[in-house]
Design a protein that fits this description.
Chain A: It holds the Pfam family LrgA. Chain A: One of its GO terms (molecular function) is hydrolase activity. Chain A: This is Effector of murein hydrolase LrgA. The complex is a heterodimer. The radius of gyration of chain A is 20 Å and the shape is extended. By secondary structure, chain A is mainly alpha-helical. Chain A is built from six helices and no strands. The termini of chain A are far apart. Chain B is mostly helical. Chain B has two domains: 4-64, no CATH class; 71-223, no CATH class. Helix content of chain B is 82%, strand content 0%. Chain B contains twelve helices and no strands. Chain B has helices spanning 4-22, 30-45, 49-61, 63-69, 71-76, 78-83, 85-109, 114-120, 127-137, 141-165, 171-190, 195-223. The radius of gyration of chain B is 18 Å and the shape is globular. The chains are: A mainly alpha, B mainly alpha.
Amino acid sequence: MKPYRGLAIIFGFYALGEFTSSALDLPIPGSVLGMLYLLAALLGGAVKLDWVENDAELFVRNMSIMFVPPGVGIITYIGLLKSQAVPVFGALIISFLITLLVTAKIVELLRGGKE
Amino acid sequence: MNPYGIALTLVVFYAFSEVHQRKRAFYTNPVLLSITTIAVLLWAGGYSYESYMESAAILKFLLGPAVVSLAVPVYKGRETIKAYAREITAGIVIGGMVAILSAFYTAELFGGTEEVLLSMAPKSVTTAIAIGISEKIGGIPALTAVLVILTGILGNAVGVELLNAAGVRDRIAKGLAMGVTSHGLGTARIILDDELAGAVSGLAMALNGVFTSLLLPYLIEVLK
């Protein structure tokens, strides 16, 4: 494992994704485009798995903590949460139930009981 | 840049991760507990979110390269994707659409404002991607972040039990439903029961993230 190679590839593809997203004014986040580019590079053999594996797994493993700062931002919307509590929490629970059960039932139907 | 926000986040998150290691339950979820604790501390100390974010913003920035890194688990799962291509495609296309439409229309039915509907729409996608989508479509990223985490916690807490109660036996169907509905936290739960269902769930989460980010911005134009 060469130092900085994985990080250079990951940040390079991230920058490329952000550049495409803003230059073409796409509604897709640059990070998602960067992921697709990296996936294509891996599948095409331009990037070898072991060049990026360790650094990528470090990012993925430590992802949870990165949601904390944006989540704390909810304190600036306390008023909105209070006035919109029914649509927010009602829709959250109902949509969760519908999505879980519809997806499972449709896939099960498609598979027709095969193991 | 001051070190206080980032230090606070790391210390609080580390402490709750330790708690979660000892007691693995949905109510010890370190992300939700950290968000709540830091919010209360800021409020009690009279600090603004902006003063906290001045230093904690770097953690949020790292979500970008973390999303790019998700290419690695998807690449490693390419054989599973090939083997179950038809089921995975159907589950993601249908499940992904149902997640968006059911959230959007139920919130509308209950009288939600437009920014609430837009923030709800990406709630079944893994947080990092959902935040990016919410920003792009004019939702409130902070609200989306919290909704995503709550959706994940629901899946983690009751997802498997609900699927069993509904009589779903197929392992691929279970894995897809968990991954498409409640992303990482759902995957973390089902992998404890069944490794194959867990692997399918993880893939479903990653692919649904990509599918939703490609579809939702265009779909929103129609829904609005």
